[in-house]
Write a structure and sequence with these properties.
The protein has helices at about 1-45, 50-80, 90-100, 105-110, 130-145, 185, 210-220, 275, 280, 295-305, 320-330, 345-355, 370-380, 395-415, 415-420, 430-445, 455-460, 465-475, 480-495, 500-510, 515-525, 530-535, and strands at about 85-90, 110-115, 125, 150-160, 170-175, 225-230, 235-240, 255, 290-295, 310-315, 335, 365, 385-390. The protein is of the alpha/beta class and about 550 residues long. The strands form 3 sheets. Strands 2-4-5-7-6 form a 5-stranded mixed β-sheet. A 5-stranded parallel β-sheet has the order 10-9-11-12-13, sandwiched between helices. It is globular. It starts with a helix and ends in a 10-residue tail after the last helix. Residues about 260-285 and about 540-544 have low confidence and may be disordered. The structure holds adenosine-5'-diphosphate.
Length: about 550
């Protein structure tokens, strides 16, 4: 019997290693398909239809990659080779990027998505990859099983326990108003390959791997996962994970020296096509979005009804929820009442204006009080406009459109990237600081072919959508274009200084294709690089 057991063990080992080898063999060529596709879609394609086709290829490639990665995780788990990989970094920043990656999915599925996450920086040892996989799986499921019009909440907390080990925990709650799970199924959803029988035919595709991996990762990290669910009402998944490394045995973990991996879009959502799309496409042509924060339900409805012919309106009933919604949706303008219980409009405005993600959003205050004192307080908090109740709807519309016109002036100011490159720009406001940081960062990586929007997300701790809306609102350009334009600006300096021929200069600002460089250069400056270098006294238009 012992011999037989030994033989079985050996077969098992061979099976696992064969499986792992094959998975690796699939990953390499697959990434050699996906990466060039990303490059093509980023740099070479201008035709919208072709872009769409390439997007489908890229998305499906990523989906396949995710599946192979999941299978690899399974085989690693089975072979007992899964270790905790710790790095010390700001956990809030990495989770913020992750959870907000689901914004565009929420928008395209018309699901209300509310995120609560602490504001402070919390630097701690934790396993970033596993933690992110756990949360992104739970969020993927929540969005997958919640219909349009529903709601998903993601609440992230850091819990401190004095005098105990571990002293710090991460708690993540993912709550949805989806179809829910029957009591008798609840114990089985964490089983490998388990999918709820009656849904297999009708539902979105799945493999039944997600939750089993979530569960195994949670166990490895010595955490806990709980689920409450009511069919037809919704589900709530609660994960708690200990942070730090004092509670771990030395042989349980490896310290990762390398800098944190840039979060690639592939980490999120298993079968969410929309989610994988570039935000440039998802958010391309939209009506302007207004967030109305007003505690009086009648007035809120009135505003919503009157303005929704021209704008997309989202409403909040109190200051706290309003700020949260602003962070989640990044509206184009915010209208807030001043007098509200708990957090009032002044505080709302102050918080919006002092957060990098939202500082560019104009805020219009509504108030019944007519004293100067209040008006001054409102303006001091950074409000862009003021309107007294009772107001006339036409007046409000006019104010909104005035403010939006003012925005265009701001775009004009920030689209002059050269002044930021040369350090001539005046740096005063939160937005100035943001722009300065942004352009310096891109400039620093001017010759780095790998540098892209994902690095910006990582550096600013903002999601794709946040970064897109922020940069678009300030400069009128999508982040990819901004990076490209800064490279073009740099190439002019190089041309002026005769730092090589055009191909060499194109290359040193990361254009591998000289004719593409020439074309974009001409589009941007109105003159071809060869003409420019011939007659470098030629005045360059210098703006997009
Ligand atoms: P799948 O790839 O099928 O989504 P999972 O392991 O992630 O696999 O989930 C297992 C099953 O649990 C799913 O098929 C689904 O029926 C159920 N489930 C998971 N999350 C939710 C949720 N938030 N709401 C309703 N059902 C869920």
């Amino acid at each position: 019997l012992a011999v037989k057991n030994k033989k079985l063990e050996e077969i098992d080992r061979i099976k696992t290693s064969f499986f792992t080898d094959i998975s690796h063999e699939i990953r390499t060529p697959l990434s050699l398909i996906i990466d060039p596709l990303e490059k093509i879609s980023r740099e070479l394609v201008t035709d919208e239809k072709l872009q769409h086709v390439i997007d489908i290829m890229r998305r499906n490639g990523q989906r396949l990659m995710r599946l192979v990665n999941q299978l690899l995780d399974i085989s690693k788990l089975d072979a007992g080779r899964m270790k905790i990989i710790l790095s010390e970094q700001d956990i809030i920043k990495s989770l913020r990027i992750l959870v907000y990656e689901f914004l565009s999915l929420a928008e395209s599925k018309q699901i209300k998505y509310i995120v609560e996450i602490p504001d402070e920086k919390i630097t701690v040892w934790f396993d970033r990859d596993k933690t992110e996989k756990i949360i992104s799986n739970l969020l993927s499921n929540a969005f997958k099983f919640t219909p349009s019009g529903g709601q998903v909440n993601c609440i992230i907390k850091i819990i401190n326990k004095k005098g105990q080990l571990p002293k710090q925990y991460l708690e993540v709650k993912v709550i949805d108003t989806g179809k829910g799970i029957k009591k008798e199924e609840l114990s089985k959803i964490f089983d490998r390959f388990y999918r709820i029988e009656e849904r297999i035919e009708t539902d979105v595709p799945g493999t039944g791997i997600g939750l089993s991996l979530v569960n195994e990762f949670v166990q490895i990290l010595h955490g806990e996962i709980k689920v409450n669910s009511t069919p037809g009402v919704g589900s709530e998944f609660i994960v708690t994970l200990p942070l730090g490394r004092d509670h771990l045995q030395p042989d349980e973990y490896i310290l990762s020296e390398s800098s944190p991996a840039v979060v690639k879009s592939e980490i999120s959502g298993a079968s969410q096509d929309k989610h994988q799309q570039k935000p440039e496409i998802v958010t391309g042509e939209h009506r302007l979005r207004i967030l109305v924060i007003e505690d009086n339900a009648d007035l809120r409805d009135y505003l919503k009804e009157s303005l929704s012919d021209e704008y997309d309106i989202v409403t909040s009933g109190n200051g706290r929820e309003g700020i949260n919604t602003a962070y989640t949706m990044i509206p184009d303008i915010i209208i807030t009442d001043i007098m509200m219980p708990d957090i009032d409009g002044i505080q709302v405005c102050y918080q919006i204006k002092n957060d990098e993600r939202t500082s560019h959003i104009p805020v219009l205050m509504l108030t019944a009080k007519t004293t100067w004192d209040d008006k001054l307080k409102g303006l001091k908090s950074g409000a862009d406009g003021y309107i007294f109740k009772p107001f006339n709807m036409e007046e409000l519309r006019l104010q909104i459109s005035n403010i939006l016109t003012l925005r265009e002036n701001i775009i004009r100011r920030y689209s002059n990237i050269r002044s930021f490159i040369t350090g001539e720009a005046e740096i005063k406001t939160v937005d100035d600081i943001f722009m300065d940081k942004l352009i310096k960062l891109i400039n620093k990586h001017i010759s780095d072919f790998d540098f892209d929007v994902a690095h910006l997300r990582e550096a600013f701790g903002m999601s794709r959508m946040h970064l897109f809306r922020k940069i678009k609102a300030l400069t009128g350009q999508a982040p990819v274009n901004l990076i490209r334009n800064i490279r073009l600006e740099k190439s002019v300096d190089l041309l002026q200084q005769h730092k090589g021929n055009i191909t060499e200069i194109a290359n040193s600002v990361c254009f591998s294709n000289p004719s593409y460089f020439a074309r974009t250069f001409k589009n941007y400056f109105g003159v071809a690089p060869k003409d420019y270098s011939k007659d470098h006294g030629l005045k360059i238009r210098g703006n997009s």
